[in-house]
Amino acid sequence: MPQLKIIRIDMSIYFSSVNHIQKRTNHILIVASGINFIDLTGTEALISGNNRLVKTVVALY
């Protein structure tokens, strides 16, 4: 299993698109230059996902 997963997001982030970035790995780097819109639900989902990952010793950058 890779130690670092780099994910480039080329879409809007909203409640139903966040599941695509919640894969299990040690470190997740999000390249966000392709995000054209993020709603409050998407923001809350990223924060919630980050909080959940921190508890499992996974870092989100």
Characterise the protein shown here.
This protein has 61 residues and is α/β, with parallel strands linked by helices. The protein has one domain (4-60). It has one helix and three strands. The protein has one helix spanning 40-55, and strands at residues 4-8, 27-31, 59-60. A three-stranded parallel beta sheet has the order 1-2-3. Strand 2 (27-31), helix 1 (40-55) and strand 3 form a beta-alpha-beta unit. The longest helix has 16 residues, at 40-55. The radius of gyration is 11 Å and the shape is flat. The mean pLDDT is 77.
Feature tags:
20% strand; 1 helix; 3 strands; alpha/beta; 61 residues; single chain
Number of strands: 3
Output the helix-strand order.
Answer: EEHE
Instruction: Specify the helix fraction band.
Output: 25-40%
Rg over C-alpha atoms, rounded to the nearest angstrom:
11 Å
Average pLDDT, rounded to a whole number, is 77
Contiguous low-pLDDT stretches (5 residues minimum) are none
When the domains are counted, the total is 1
Largest sheet: 3 strands, parallel
Q: Globular, elongated, flat, extended or rod-shaped: what is the shape? A: flat
Structural class: alpha/beta
If helices are DSSP runs of H or I spanning 4 or more residues, what is the number of helices? 1
Q: What separation lies between the terminal Cα atoms?
A: 18 Å
Percentage of residues in DSSP E strands? 15-25%
Strand order of the largest sheet: 1-2-3
